[in-house]
Amino acid sequence: MILLWTGFIALILLLLALDLGVFHRAAHVVTVKEAFKWSIVWVTIGLSFSVPVYFAYENHWCDLGTTVDAIDGVANDGRTAAGKYLTGYIVEQSLSVDNLFVIAMIFTAFAVPAIYQHRLLFWGILGALVMRGAMIGIGAQLVSRFHWVLYVFGAFLIVTSIKMLLTTTSHSVPSNGFIVRFVRRFFPVTDRYHGNHFLVRAGSANSKEGTPGIASSLEDASVARAKPGTWMLTPLAIALLTIETTDLIFAVDSIPAIFAITADPFLVFSSNIFAILGLRSLFFVLAGMLDKFRYLKYSLAAILFLVGAKMFVADWIKPIVGDQFNLYLLIVIFAILAIGVLASFHADRRDHRSNTR
Hints:
Shape: globular
Oligomer: single chain
Number of strands: 4
Number of domains: 1
Strand order of the largest sheet: 1-3
């Protein structure tokens, strides 16, 4: 099992190294065309990983599929494991789309230059992978030891879905003022961007030149008093901390959602990771279209309600539906998401026709 986790983490690190160190080594403004191509690459990789998942569980590589899944009380064979992985991947990818709205707001609030946005997202997602891994590990231990935790997760998802429907907007950013004040208590912060640096030394050439950021929020006497050679945070670092904080908040919703599908740690972790990996490219594809997905919130709320309710009624429904239960769940989730997207596009076209008359 150690070999399995070591190999998977090595694969993810290799993909990230190729992404940042080879294909996106130089900072540049990501075009929609480039982002679309990379989105296809990441989605293809994510969906294709279901193939090795199938063979690994079917043949019990590294003892996969030899233990009972706490969610449905059966050991996962190749078909059920692949189905749960795909369902988890689609759920996590769907919920991650909600993050895009917040990321766009963070970029605007911190006036992040377009040329640095891809690199900022890279490090933000790397931090998200670490946090998700820790939260999944804790969640897996809780589910394996205390089965009633599943019902707590289910209730939480149902309440979250209702709150999402009742609130006027589901997209909020942690106060950048709070983040700045908190960090500034311990570190001096520059008022300008300095390339793709998160840290610069006071008194150096880099600390005197740069792109203006959110100076009105960041200027402080501590910057002026900083001794030459003192390390100073840049606005890019503050934006990164805000993104990490936001992902931690969103993970509170997404982690219980995946545990509604499976409690297998490898399936939970792998589906989460591949969904997050494609988030950067997807952002640049949808950045100019996010406001058009007006009904996406309702689809996400329906998905959260569905997976939450599934935790309570699965034991009664599965004997009726049969072994194809997870496949049907996958189809329903995909249909809900598709309805929200199509309804949004239809409403946007209708408004466009009304405005042109």
